[in-house]
Input
Amino acid sequence: RRLKAHRVTAAADERELALVLVKLAQLAADVPEIRQMSLNPLLVDDAGVIAVDARILAGPVEELHKGRGHPRFAIFPYPSEWERTITLADGSPAFVRPVRPEDEDLFREFFRHVTDDDLRLRFFQSVKHFSHEFIARLTQMDYARSIALVALDGEGAMLGAVRLVADANYETGEYGILVRSDLKGKGIGWQLMRIMIEYAGWLGLHEVDGQVLRENRGMLAMCQQLGFDITPDPDEPTVMMVRLKVADVPA
Output
């Protein structure tokens, strides 16, 4: 209320004040050694914002959780460092980035280009209805323990996605991958798997595991080429267990 116009006083520039808050948050993310920060007073009027005095207290970083990423944040920021451009088998470029919560419509359109059989191979069951709750489980995640990477073409259409979820001890991670049915053979799945394995190494995981239906010969062949050990699931004859020692993967 104090920022609004009042009698002869013009309204304060709220956009500039919001930008200060965003920059302070970015500073805390970029410099984890910052323990305390005080801007006092911070003056705001219609001409903008100015800090009359500032005080910063710095100290050694204390890691408050396991795993990589910011050592003191309870919520891991969007990992923009995993954005990259790749070249597909046909020479066309694709942009790979982590999934964002606002990608629901992107996934909904993507599923229109995936056959029922490919969906069954990915989710181990027939999927007919893509509810908000179903897609939210794919797009809303804790970046500290999981990541999903999507490949996009030049027009922003989704080509495929790979997901990795680490256990609580950051020792193993379980992956899942799905590529548009009409785009198989372009190397999308292969490149997404390679980036996912690279991410597992960055996260400090010892191995990457997955479950693949025995009939999914394409996925099993790719896993074999990538160096996964493939063994039958002792509890489910239709499923194969695939396991990769991350330390054994060449850089």
Summary: The longest strand covers residues 158-166.
